[in-house]
Amino acid sequence: MIRRIAVALTALAAAFTVPAPAQALGGADPVVRTAAGLVRGEVTAEGRQFLGIPYAEPPVGKLRWKEPRAVRPWQGVRTAQDFVDKCVQTSSWDPGYEQPSHTEDCLDLNVYVPQGSARRAVLVWFHGGGLTAGAGQDIVPDTFARQTGTVVVTVNYRLGAMGFLATAGLDGETADGVSGNFGMLDQQAALRWVRANIGRFGGDPGRVTIAGESAGGRSVCTQLASPTAKGLFRAGVIESGAYDDCGARTHEAAVSQGAEFARKLGCETVACLRGRSAAEILAAQGEFDWGPVTGGTFLPRQPAEALAAGASAGVPVMNGANQDEGRLFAFARFDLGGNPLTAEQYPTVMREEFGERALQRYPVSAYPTPTIGYATALGDALFACSALRLDDVLSGRGPVYTYEFADRTSPPFASLRNLRTDFDFGATHVNEVQYLFKHFGLESPLNAEQKVLARQMVQYWGSFVRGGVPRATGQPAMPGGPGTVLSLKTSSRGGNALSTAVRTEHQCDLWGTEGAR
Fold first, then answer.
1. Region 57-71: what's the mean pLDDT?
2. CA–CA distance from 16 to each of 98, 137, 411, 480, 505 (Å)?
3. Distance between CA atoms of residues 111 and 94, nearest Å
4. What's the first-to-final CA gap in the chain, in angstroms?
5. Phi-psi region of 129 (alpha: psi -120 to 50; beta: other; left: phi over 0)
């Protein structure tokens, strides 16, 4: 289902403003010596930023579909004042993504540092995009870094087939006989770079929190379950990332898909695949499901199983979802193309996707439009109840702090605002990101009371990054266990409040691991 939804979202591609790094101020540019060489960043109104620092060798030529290699040292001072190219991906609906990227030399990261010399906690952000799209530059967290007194690192990692292709031939090139986790291993390489270098930028390598939204949140869930990530971070934040219960592909399924992908390209060998251009790889990958693979050293078993067995024991986690996750996907499927779901179509669509019981629980008469009814079922099944199930799993191995972003007054995030639609997105997928960071580098579209909520959310997230417990001045404590969540709302909608009703509101008794059928 996620793959089909992701394909539908590509229809949102349009002309948007390309995001840019923060405006530099006058004065001497800061220079930092990393393990591989000197980098020159720049001073901005919010602090210092260093953009486009390589953390691994470019995965090109013979290094395509290889584990990331340490970046080679360079001579002189490397300029780190501009974002690098995004990893290989199609065009999409997001600002700055009007054209596809065919760039394989993309394993870079960005570092944002507040002014001052204090040793600061570190947030490492993995971007969303379904593991087929996105880049570290999708957020500009310089204001967050200043407000929270933290160092923030955003990361590029390989995507789609470049990041997750598994074949029998590639299995033979790996130490553990399991290929297909190259993008996840990139993330770990970035974390090792952080451990080795972040102290030189004022960060504390012993206080690293990993965080991400959507596929970035799924990445956090996967890294929590990975034995090879042990010791690379001390806390994690999962935003809307528990979909499909953080499930990974089995090795057998991944290799079978890889063989079909190779046939589509007319290849029988790894050498043939490496000979295909990035454009050819990209053109062939669309119909397949890309993601991490179980069975090897990186991920011996499914993340939920590993976490239930105590993986990342003692590591605090913040986990949550948005109240109306499904509305974005429902809009992309139906209303975007001018074909809103009708009352006549509703029963057939609901039965085919969710079963008869779901149709009974989500009658079309209960919603302002059929599309919203479908969206509610989709969001409950795929995101809300998956997040609540993950809370139960996580609580058995360490602290878990739970929230639901429920500001239904929130403006559509940057990718949707120029569509000039009156569709009611509510608190949909991705919408919380603009409350924490400059989304796509754009200034905040929030009104006065939304900005108050944004400041409170920044306090919760910042407190968690600094000390492992999310707090905000004058606000309820974020619950430290399953059963109760902190509902994040503007003051006119009741303000932030604890809720014990979310499982009932999202009808989670219907949405078990096997769905509603």
1. 98
2. 8, 15, 17, 40, 36
3. 22
4. 15
5. left
Q: From the candidates 92, 214, 226, 487, which is the catalytic residue?
A: 214
Q: Do residues 188 and 226 touch, judged by C-beta distance below 8 A?
A: yes
Burial grade of 456 (CB within 10 A; 0-12, 13-18, 19 or more): buried
- Is 214 part of the annotated catalytic residue set? yes
Taking the C-alpha atoms of residue 359 and residue 345, their distance in angstroms, rounded to an integer, is: 12
Looking at residue 68, its amino acid is P
Backbone Cα Rg of the chain: 22
Q: Is 325 a catalytic residue?
A: yes
Cα–Cα nearest to 513, from 415, 406, 418, 381: 381
Alpha-carbon span 82 to 90, nearest angstrom? 22
Following CA atoms 368, 374, 378, 380 in sequence, which dihedral angle do they give, to the nearest 10 degrees? 40
Classify the C-alpha dihedral 221-225-231-234 as positive or negative: positive
CA distance 49 to 151: 10
What number is the average pLDDT over the span 432-442? 93
> Helix (H, G, I), strand (E, B), or coil: what is residue 248?
coil
CA distance 217 to 236: 9
Question: What is the separation of C-alpha 355 from the centre of its chain, rounded to a whole number of angstroms?
Answer: 29
Distance CA 296, CA 310 (A): 18
Which tokens go with 365?
């008469």
Distances (CA, A) of 458 to 11, 289, 306, 434, 466: 32, 34, 30, 11, 12
Structure token pair of residue 231: 């010791």
- Could you read off the pLDDT of 480-512 as tens digits, one per residue? 988 899 999 999 999 999 999 999 999 999 998
- Quote the tokens at residue 436: 């924490």
- The continuous run of DSSP H or E covering 77 comes out as strand 77-79
- Of 67, 325, 404, 432, the active-site residue reads 325
| pLDDT tier, 11 (very low <50, low <70, confident <90, very high otherwise) | very low
pLDDT single digits (tens) 418-431: 787 899 999 999 99
Residue 10's pLDDT is 47
Q: What is the pLDDT of residue 24?
A: 58
Catalytic residue among 251, 429, 439, 506: 429
Two structure tokens written together for 318: 């913040």
- On the question of pLDDT at 234 being above 80, the answer is yes
Pairing type for strands 139-140 and 77-79 reads: unpaired
CA 420 to chain centre: 26
